[in-house]
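Hey, sorry to bother you again with one of my protein questions. I've been staring at a protein lately and its backbone has me curious. I owe you a coffee for this, so here goes:
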Amino acid sequence: IPVVPKFFTTDSYEDQRFQDLPDSYVIKTSVGYSANQVFPVKNGKNVFTNEAVSVNEILDKLQNDSFVQNQNHKIIVEELVDDEFGHKIPLDYKFYMFGGEIAAIQVIDRPSKKTSDQSHAFYNISWEKIAINILPVREDIDKFDKPKFFDEMKGAAIDLGKALGVFMRIDFYTTKEGFYFGEFTPTPEGGRGYSEEGNRYLGTFWKGDEGC
């Protein structure tokens, strides 16, 4: 299953390779939540904020991030991939997996880190919008086209879900050339923000202690 190409992974904030990065890159940590520890940079600007930022400023922020520093972690530096549909931040395709069963596919458009600026929708395995408002923390709008590599992404999610054998949200991105695995998320949204209706819907898929 393809992953976003990495420049390098390190556990040292003093790694000299930070000083030799290209014009576009992403710095993130192996632990994090809600993209707070993700810094996509293009031509010296944070793509989320359109503000100038340097590698050293990013590293300082991470070193002062108590969530990161209280855990064993690594710093991941990878390519900034181009979204299939031209969004400045690639759309997130988040598969809610109960073992090998797909309960829902959440698509998120993140033009900024502000949740109020973001929109999303939940789809089923046939790319039909799920009618209920599962997670009413963003604008829920049916504006997303089915990605070119949807079937391949779906197959990868099923294979990974079966191999894990537990509940897991499995995230992907797509480009015009293919799709990439993003990350595993065992506790989406920290378990908060879901509607009563959404909890009931997702709960119908839960079996046993681990969800499948």
About this structure: The first strand starts at residue 6 and ends at 10. The CA atoms of residues 23 and 43 lie 5 Å apart. The mean pLDDT is 95.
